Amino acid sequence: MSKSLDPYASLRYKEFNIFLLVRFAMVFAWSMQFIVIEWQVYALTKDPLALGIIGLMEIIPAVSIALFAGHIVDQKEKRNLLIKCILGFSVVSFGLFLVTLPSIEKDFASKSILYTIYALVFLGGLVRAFIGPTIFSLIALIVPKKIYPNAATWSSSTWQVASVMGPAFAGFSISWIGVHWSLCIIFGFSILALLFLSQISRKPILNPKLGEPIFQSLKDGIQFVFSTKAILGALTLDMIAVLFGGAVALLPIYAQDILNVGSEGFGILRAAPAVGASITMLASTRFPLHKNAGKKLLWAVFGFGLCIIVFGLSKLFWISVIALFISGAVDGVSMIIRQTILQLKTPDNMRGRVASVNSIFVGSSNELGAFESGVTAKLMGTVTAVVFGGCMTLLTVGGMAAFFPSFRKLDLSKDVEAQEGAD
User: How far apart are the C-alpha atoms of 407 and 295, rounded to whole Å?
Assistant: First the structure.
């Protein structure tokens, strides 16, 4: 079977399988930690704006140093850099474990605990600025170019499966053993990721401009992204959708005050989008999405906006779960196409910088979207804020389809064939 048609092509490389274990452990820990923090902060404050501030505390450092992080990633060896990122996350998770000790909560005011949580989330934002570009660059050094699309799909699928299990487990874990010991489990997963990563060998640095002045390096990276219309269009569309479709940041309010389903229901709601995305991504290993990629991406984001509106208006738990499930399924299409565009269109020596711009456009918009949702919920009410976000997503898709016909016609089939021919 041709490796371009083999759905398991990238899984035939031992180090890629180890990489998937590392990614699973880290995403599981990170997504679980975010849920536990959300629950704890809302329990302390009962204020939707406090949930938004969680996102703000992560986005400030992530955006501020993202481009510099991309430059460093392109200049450094990727395996060891990822080890340092995971060690940084371990410090954050252990700090959160300590600050939620029952004796700490008893002896310190809730505001002091809240501000400490925000400070640790801020530190996590610094780590996140490096971890995304490092992971993106490392994949390209583990598998050959001709199976980049397949590797991107499996990597994204692993991300989504971990995103299913992390939030779901967090909801039940909070109920069974409480916030404090849930955070201990998160710390354990970060240590597990370090053990897995030690089984991957060091990789060569493929940047021919080592020692290049940092500002020239950043300028080249930004110019490349803005001159490559496929990358710019995909990042812009996803950024706006995530920014205004950040309903997940308000799930603690829906679980506790609107749907009244408790921490177990909260875990199910939080996991539903990732379940849908996981199914989409696993299906895409057999049914590639590179043909007519532009149209598929536009329809996927349009469907995402509709689902957010349905979820916002729903007062029934099962309808809310279905809406979130479908939103995840169509978002999975969007993620696969975006990752395929980035892998195929980005040269090896610019992967760190392009991934950093991606983190500013898309990754950090998750946190900015959380802040936007918190602010709008405070100003106009939770339900109205979610519906408003869904409507803005639909308007964005309509604008992209009308004013950027070249993106609507984007097809990646020739790019995939060219990579196969090169190898």
Answer: 8
